[in-house]
Amino acid sequence: MEKKKGNGKKAMKVLGIILLVFVVIGITGTIANKVYIKNTLEYIKKLEPVVLEDRLSIEKDTDGFYTIISDRDVKIVQLTDIHLGGGWMSKKDDYKVIDTIATMVAEEKPDIVIATGDISYPIPFTAGTFNNQYAARIFATVMETLNIPWTVTFGNHDSEIYSIYNREKMGEFYSSDEWKNCLYLMDDESVDGVGNSVIKVKNSDGVITQALITIDSNDYPQDNKFAGLVAGITGNYDNIHENQIDWYKTTCERLNADNKAFIEKTFEGDEQTHLLEKYGLVKSLVFMHIPPVEYQQAWDEFKANGYKDTENVKYYYGTLGEKVCHPTNDDQFFEAALEVGSTQGMFVGHDHINIFSIDYKGIRLTYGMSIDYVAYGKIDTKGTQRGCTVITVKPDGTFDCYPENYYQDKYANPDKEQVTMQVLNEEFSG
User: Fold this and answer.
1) N or C: which end of the chain has fewer CB atoms below 10 A?
2) Residue 70 CB partners (closer than 8 Å, separation 6+)
3) Residue 26: pLDDT above 60?
4) For 62-76, what is the mean pLDDT?
5) Residue 320 buriedness (CB in 10 A; 0-12 / 13-18 / 19+)
6) Residues 353-411: pLDDT tens digits?
């Protein structure tokens, strides 16, 4: 009996020591993270603001959405899979991310930056924190210091189940008045996802020439939020929900109706006829994180035809470096886009070493170049995937886009690491 009591006391003592160790680690980590964030924000605020010689006017329209006023090309820089850890353990990589973003944005001088998800990467054993707002604050502060209009869509890592803040709280963070250059809106809370929104481009006459639609592609299936813990193995990702598709279709229909009504009210005769033909159907671009299955279907058809164009496929650039990690269930979003008939292109991230742009059934499907320094093992030694995507929206509503690799000479940064530009797909590297 005495021996059992002695063993029990010993076990309790060991348990107490273990708990004490965890408490000490927790307190130490909390202090280290607060010091890290303070020092990092001070580092960011030393960045030079980007001077735009012809800064476009941006205002809120009567419907509450932001509107860019432009009679010239609108230059967009897409950033994706930024993967800021936001903790003391990710300091080295986070500073690389900060420098990469600042260098590219300063060189490109875009009218707006759109980040398509995975801004935050609060993986505890990588970042040293569960606080996903730390990373969000770093990114927001970078953009505000650079003084460039910007917005975001969410990726699967921005609000992991173990993160301190859920998607709604992250949306409130980005839509806060604290960020003067941020065009992020929460919009209709009755619709699934957080941050489904639209930014209109109008000319000085008041005609909508383009719509930039941001959609939350969600993260993991609603019935299994813990899927995120093994998603990298299982590829188990959520899809765009039915009410989001309805919202998208309704939004496009409303844009068309508003533009048609404005043109008919404001213009007459041949000019009215011309404008209705040109802008009656408002062209749009969609920005989201997780690619629909059609990205894989388009590449498969391209490959099956000997890497040559088909009736459905027109190749622009890039390679498939890994399997497309599309939603587990077909969400019918691409089919809805075909039905609406106004969406010209889709821009995604998620798959860090897929870098291609390919037209499929009349919609151009493009992967943004990622920035990731932490998620994919040794990906930073390859160099081919890191950069941004530049999108040019023209006054007639058409667009073009192209990738810009971070390691080219024009992005002058003395601290830029040296890499070996490896071929991502030996079979096809067009």
Assistant:
1) N
2) 56, 111, 201, 202, 203, 209, 395
3) no
4) 95
5) buried
6) 899 999 999 999 999 999 998 887 656 666 778 999 999 999 999 999 999 999 998 99
CA dihedral over 319, 325, 330, 336, signed as positive or negative = negative
Kindly state the DSSP code that residue 351 receives in the 8-state scheme: S
> How far apart, in Å, do the first and last CA atoms of the chain sit?
77
Write the pLDDT tens digit of every residue in 201-255.
999 999 999 999 999 999 888 766 566 666 555 668 889 999 999 999 999 999 9
User: Phi, psi at residue 276, to the nearest 5°?
Assistant: -65, -40
Tokens of 36: 């890290």
Contact 366, 389 (CB under 8 A): yes
Assign residue 19 a region (left: φ > 0; alpha: ψ between -120 and 50; beta: otherwise).
alpha
pLDDT at 27: 58
Among 203, 310, 188, 177, which residue's Cα sits nearest to residue 266?
A: 203
Amino acid 90 reads: S
Residue 5 three-state SS: helix
Q: Among 3.40.50.2000, 3.40.50.970, 3.60.21.10, 3.90.550.10, what is the CATH number of 17-47+56-405?
A: 3.60.21.10
Distance CA 190, CA 172 (A): 15
Sheet strands side by side (includes 363-367): 57-60, 66-69, 197-202, 208-214, 284-287, 343-348, 363-367, 355-360, 313-319
CB-hemisphere CA count at 13 Å for 131?
A: 21
Contacts of 382 (CB under 8 A, 6+ apart): 353, 419, 420, 421, 422, 424
Helices and strands in the chain: count of H runs, count of E runs: 10, 14
